[in-house]
Specification:
The chain has one domain: D-Maltodextrin-Binding Protein, domain 2 (3-Layer(aba) Sandwich), CATH 3.40.190. The protein is built from 14 helices and nine strands.
Length: 332
């Protein structure tokens, strides 16, 4: 009888454990609040990317990590944001690549004039090995790049005259980003080039101290530049990426699980911004026209390409193999 009782107890004990599964490993998530900044308004694709990043991170961490979005340069201009990330005093930003090139010059290779003909060409390079290597190189300057977001093809506005050819650009006082490739591109076109931060540009346009600027359609639309500019020429002279950027110090403080979530959120945020711009550009352009801005579509692109050839001559040594890799990849 004792043996039978012992056997029954042992059997119950074994069966009770047989029904138990090992506890699933829970992601290592610490409660924290991340501040994500950008310098444009809430109608811009940067903000769309920021909202998507917030949505994904908060969902995947069950709200343990919260993301605060600070638009409209609340935390400073783009250079200030980058420097803050390097020092660890600012967490994250969606940043135009132009100012980033001050710290990592090689990223300016993507700004070479007329390098890309379509968004798809740009995405092929940015999301492929070449672009991902440049993102990794950001760690050499105390930054971590999650993904390339959308800024888009840039076109020229001014309040002096319609621009169809490089000859029409000569003498115009044009604001560009603080990026040597942009400066040299517009110098090659004969403009009086003025590099300045975006906030300063808006003031200068209102005061009439500059004649024009260059930006993607979404920026021209969201800032109602028809209020200060008469002409928009669809030069599409440069495809400019943006970077979903964060402090390397913050990145290194994240657990592997948190890093995986941030990486996924960065990719989804980049895609959301791209989709927003591509889906809305035509509607935005129609509204720009409806508000009285004269849109010049018959731009002599071949003449512009020829006019900026000196930019390629100047930077062929600096970008060297990297530029050739991009050009070769685009031919495949």
């Amino acid at each position: 009888m004792k043996k039978i009782l012992t056997f029954v107890v042992l059997l119950v004990f074994i069966l009770s454990f047989a029904g138990c599964k090992p506890a699933e490993k829970q992601p290592a998530i610490s409660e924290r609040t991340i501040k994500l900044a950008h310098v444009v308004n809430e109608k811009d694709s940067f903000h769309i990317s920021a909202l998507k990043f917030k949505e994904v991170v908060e969902a995947k961490t069950n709200g343990k990590i919260k993301v605060e979005i600070h638009p409209n340069a609340e935390l400073g201009d783009e250079r200030t944001l980058i420097e803050g990330m390097q020092q660890g005093t600012i967490d994250m930003g969606v940043i135009t690549d132009g100012p980033v090139s001050t710290f990592l010059p090689e990223i300016a290779v993507f700004d070479m004039p007329f390098l890309f003909k379509t968004p798809e060409e740009a995405y092929k390079i940015l999301d492929g090995p070449i672009g991902q290597k440049v993102l990794k190189d950001l760690e050499t300057v105390q930054l971590h790049g999650l993904a390339f977001a959308e800024r888009g093809f840039r076109s020229l506005t001014n309040n002096k005259r319609p621009v169809k050819t490089p000859e029409d650009v000569k003498g115009l006082k044009i604001r560009v980003m603080q990026n040597p490739v942009y400066i040299d591109t517009f110098n090659a076109l004969g403009a009086n080039t003025v590099p300045m931060a975006w906030g300063d540009c808006l003031t200068a346009l209102k005061q009439g101290t500059i004649d024009g600027q260059e930006n993607p359609i979404v920026v021209i639309y969201s800032y109602k530049l028809w209020e200060t500019q008469k002409y928009l020429s669809l030069t599409r002279h440069t495809y400019a990426p943006a970077v979903i950027l964060m402090s390397l110090k913050l990145w290194n403080s994240l657990s592997p699980d948190e890093q995986a979530i941030f990486t996924e959120a960065g990719k989804e945020a980049a895609e959301a911004g791209r989709k927003y711009d591509n889906d809305n550009e035509k509607t935005q352009l129609d509204e720009i026209k409806a508000n009285g801005m004269q849109v010049i579509e018959d731009v002599d692109v071949d003449a512009f390409r020829k006019a900026v050839e000196p930019v390629y001559t100047k930077y062929s040594a600096q970008f060297g193999d990297l530029l050739k890799q991009i050009q070769d990849a685009l031919k495949k």
